[in-house]
């Protein structure tokens, strides 16, 4: 029997766990636990190690699926997957959620983080939730991967549908498994929706998604973002300012610190206008002894976050990105 391996990567909520459960059923292994961070506002559980499943096609092919956790704080498992468990994978499948505000950012982030694996295996992109929001379209994704110089097929699919997931996997292994090997499974498959489960295994209806219209490259931060980021572990304060440095809302009691972050915000347009660099999306000012200042830059807005020195800048950045993607 010929063995094949597929690695599924992508952000939290893109459908990695659901897709593997859809294909493998009771044979699937999941390490989902109750979400204790911003993820809990979107879904009840999150993968902390990996998801594993398998599928057999007759007596000829055996396929193993490895789902990587979406959050950067579990990136140690990314290394385990790409250098050990699935170092010999046949294809990397990047799953993206079409209802996030900026799927392009997810696309760029995960292609960069898993660049070595993608170079070895090639890339297939599967986009979920297109039934909830039709844009970005496939044409958008094609343009984005063209900009990155990446070769990849892109498909809209439903992670709850066995036929839909089988079709995606078939595309991933089209050069290794003949199409007639898939026919019996595709004919037998029935589109049975899978309900989300709590950590104790109790089926639960998925939450109703509140989805904004697709705004293209622009993200608008609401005043409530300051209260939201204050729930992140290690965050000591936050300020939202416009690009002229005017403070819009703040959790700080230090006018001088607010003024300093506002000054940084006002400097950003001048910096972009006078340098050859690509537009900055974030700036980190780190003290070896005190707290760090993390500045996140959107069009016409700047979010400044004060975090203690033990807080990982990359983990904080991804949690803030998730808040911006889901609000």
From TrEMBL:
Domain called G: residue spans: 6-106
SUPFAM superfamilies with a match to the protein in the record: P-loop containing nucleoside triphosphate hydrolases (SSF52540)
Transmembrane segments: none
Matches recorded under Pfam families: MMR_HSR1
Protein name (database record): ATP/GTP-binding protein
